[in-house]
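Structure tokens please, single chain.
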Amino acid sequence: MSRLPLFLSLLATALFAWALAGCGGSQESGTAPSGDQPAEQAGAQSSAEHEHGEHAEHAEHGAAMAELPDEDRALAEKQKICPVSGEALGSMGTPFKIVHEGKTVFLCCEGCKDKFLQDPESYLAKLNQ
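Here you go.
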């Protein structure tokens, strides 16, 4: 009789692991991107399958970017990422604008300002890549 609880525990654990493995999702198209396919093509395929504006994350970015004046918003949208953190501009609220030696740079937040000012040339180089 003492083996029954052990067996039931192992069975429950196996079923739980099996259920979690099934939660990985599936692709609606039925085809997985092949290893031969360039990353850009694989990304473009998954992007084409849905609208990015439908995601709450993208809506939040858009709302944060909309708080910028039109001219700044155009520059920030062109820049896309914070050179300090690598985060998408707008992902942490309204992008923070800084002008360094006549060049306008947007950071994801004011917290990145000090780090940027410690080594501006390396962060500016990231934007030029």
